[in-house]
Input
Amino acid sequence: MSKRKSPTVYTGEFKQMVIETMRSEHLSVNETAKQFGITSHMSIPNWERIYLEEGVEGLYIERRGRACATSGTHKGRPVGLKKEVEEDLIAEVQRLRAENAYLKNLQALVLDRERQQRKKP
Output
């Protein structure tokens, strides 16, 4: 009787390092798997998809196991949003980013003006 080998669990930090190395050094999935000793052929493409869709934070979410039937999430991962809601959220994020950039520029101008006034005797 043969024992099944339990799957290797990789940390979010390791996944991030693998994906960022692959992208910065322009390595193929196979080259990356060899370099990091990853035997599962689908791990790296899955990690890259998560990295591109959800960002670095997505690599740190535990995704093993079944989805929770009551909350509609998979271990902290939200179910897809309606198209209209998603568009509204994207528009709000863009507006907030623009507002943030404006406030940063305004703060820089105020600080610059204050410095100039201090220099004048």
Notes: The chain has two domains: 9-66, 79-121. Helices lie at 12-24, 29-36, 43-54, 83-119. The radius of gyration is 23 Å. The chain has a mean pLDDT of 85.
